[in-house]
Amino acid sequence: MKRVVRALACVVLAVELGLAFSLVVGVRPPAYVEAAVVLVVVVEGLLLLLVFRRGGGGAVKDVLPPTARRLVGHEARVFGSLGLWVARRRHGVPAGADPFPYAKGQASMMYAFAFVCVVETFGMWALLRDEPAIHRVVFFLDVYTVLMVLGLHAAAVTRPHVVTGDMVRVRRGAHVDLRIPLERIARVRRENRFTHTQAEGELHLDVASQTSLTLELREPVRHHTLLGRPRDVVVVRLHAEEPERLARVLEERLTRARAEPSPVAD
Q1: Do 185 and 240 lie in a common domain?
Q2: I need a surface site. Which of 79, 110, 222, 224 has the fewest CB within 10 A?
């Protein structure tokens, strides 16, 4: 069953790419080709529904390759962040936790980029009015790009760094989310860096090419890149809008944890 679903997914992807190319060059495929594509998509959807009913969401995940799942998950988080941004809510900030935002440093750049994309959208809309097929494809891609840019900034706004009782959660938008137990932090160093050559074992979460805090770890923490490649991290450089307060909160939590007596066996 899984092999059939994967094969159909590859067929749907290849056919959709072919249809997109034909629309771009201004050639509409015959009606029977469009009907066949619709039929394959419907069958694919029914098979996915059958897999879900038999094995749940985990079974559907097993059907898709890991890289595809990660990319789809990233886009889902980006567009989900738009809803959180509109609702003025934040992701992963429980009651009693200390959030530390970092998105202000990139706000002007992201808004400028979004404005340029909007201008380009209207420009292409005006230029391609006499080419309906290409016009629709380009307009869809332009609107998607604008929403993606706004979603990337919304992800940075709604997903701040978070310090809880026994952990610090460092993030950058929707594609980096690393949980570091406080017991693994050896040193918190306040420093501003504007150049970043990422060495082995280092993770740089710079915003507008700037980091303002460095965490040195006693033990490595496993980090997975956007495409799933694992890395062991012993140094984390990050940016926060209030780096002094973040450093102070971390030092207080570390001092409190070290002062607590360790349990003694009977």
Answers
A1: yes
A2: 222
Beta strand ranges found along 182-252 (DSSP E): 185-193, 202-205, 211-224, 230-238
The H or E element spanning position 142 is: helix 132-158
In this structure, is residue 264 part of a structural domain?
A: no
Same domain, 114 and 166: no
3 state DSSP class of 61 = helix
Contacts of 36 (CB under 8 A, 6+ apart): none
Residue 107 belongs to what domain range? 67-94+103-159
What is the domain count for the chain?
Answer: 3
Instruction: Kindly tell me the burial class for residue 44, based on how many C-beta atoms sit within 10 Å of its own C-beta (0-12, 13-18, 19 or more).
Output: middle
Q: What is the pLDDT of residues 196-217, one digit of tens each?
A: 677 889 999 999 889 999 999 9
DSSP code at position 210: B
Cα–Cα dist 51/222, whole Å: 32
Q: What confidence score (pLDDT) does residue 266 get?
A: 47
